[in-house]
UniProtKB/TrEMBL annotation:
Subcellular location: Cytoplasm
Site annotation Important for substrate specificity: residues: S192
Organism: Bowmanella pacifica
Name this polypeptide is given: Homoserine O-succinyltransferase
UniProt cross-references to HAMAP family, sorted A to Z: MetA_acyltransf
Lineage summary: Bacteria, Pseudomonadati, Pseudomonadota, Gammaproteobacteria, Alteromonadales
Length: 305
């Protein structure tokens, strides 16, 4: 599918080399269709890497999508040039009156902080309340999934003694839910987190359906029954070497991390990772765009309430 992004965004060259259809602004403007409007609130420190990962996953349907990159603070992230942020990101206050078909909220390296101590938590709560009124369906990844559960339902995650890191086997719990259409009964997905919410806690919330779980990693995928909130506790967007990079980073920081499970062949970090999660990650995003966004959103975005 064509995703419409700024012509100079670095992701355009990367995706073009992967033979992914990215449409320039001029060509997209001449198509007589109503494109989907999707926002990405990118909370990750390496913005450019995360942009590429998410835009790749948004590129697998015949729908045209306009993408807005969004930020909620003015601080320049240490791993992303200020010029990049100034050129390609919208301040939340500047788009607060806009309505979106879909919104993606990324994870953030804030696992060990209480939500109220996060420097932008007040702004984050404003965004979460805004999304319920301005977005047809919002997909939360990793830290954002737990933060959203806390904000909307008052459920706090507990912290594990050791970081959950690796590729884990999951089971489909609701095979007839559109979000899982085309999934194998058993599939793999990446996790990289300290936080967790027990299965029975999710099940105690009437508005929530638990869609996929893992014996080792717990709840991976849950959604509100009205399809407007999707909680993904893992990282379907991760590149083949992302977990390896995190492992190396933690080693260099002296934190003595465990080797990511089921990731390196024979758990040997000297070997290239075995990639087993990307097809289902792509399918998850395709299903979300089609069945939770496109099939549900009103033609006139102003009708979202």
């Amino acid at each position: 599918m064509p995703i419409r992004i700024p012509n100079d965004l670095p992701a355009q060259d990367v995706l073009g080399e992967e033979n992914i259809f990215v449409m320039g602004m001029e060509r997209a403007a001449n198509q007589d269709i109503r494109p989907l409007e999707v926002g990405i609130l990118n909370l990750m420190p390496n913005k450019i890497e995360t942009e590429v990962q998410l835009l790749r996953l948004l590129s697998n349907t015949p729908l045209q999508i306009n993408v807005d990159l969004i930020r909620i603070d003015n601080e320049a992230p240490k791993n992303t040039p200020k010029a990049h942020m100034d050129a390609f990101y919208h301040q939340f206050d500047d788009i607060a009156n806009k309505k979106y078909d879909g919104l993606i909220v990324t994870g953030a390296p804030l696992a060990l902080l209480d939500y109220e101590t996060v420097k932008y938590w007040d702004k984050m709560q404003t965004v979460l309340d805004w999304a319920r009124r301005h977005v047809q369906s919002t997909l939360f990844l990793c830290w954002a999934a737990h933060a959203a559960m806390y904000h909307y339902f008052g459920i706090d995650r507990r912290l594990r003694d050791n970081k959950l890191s690796g590729v884990f086997t999951h089971q489909v719990n609701e095979e007839h839910d559109e979000l899982l259409r085309g999934f194998d009964p058993v599939f793999n997905a990446c996790h990289s987190r300290f936080g967790e919410i027990p299965l029975d806690t999710y099940q105690s919330v009437p508005e929530i359906k638990v869609l996929a779980t893992s014996d080792k990693a717990g709840v991976y995928l849950a959604a509100s029954r009205d399809k407007r909130l999707v909680f993904v506790t893992g990282h379907p967007e991760y590149d083949p070497d992302t977990l390896a990079g995190e492992y190396q980073r933690d080693l260099e920081a002296g934190s003595q991390p465990a080797v990511p499970e089921n990731y390196f062949p024979g758990d040997n970090p000297c070997l290239a990772p075995l990639v087993t999660w990307r097809s289902h990650g792509s399918l998850l995003f395709t299903n979300w765009l089609n069945y939770y966004v496109y099939q549900e959103t009103p033609f006139n975005l102003s009708d979202i309430a």
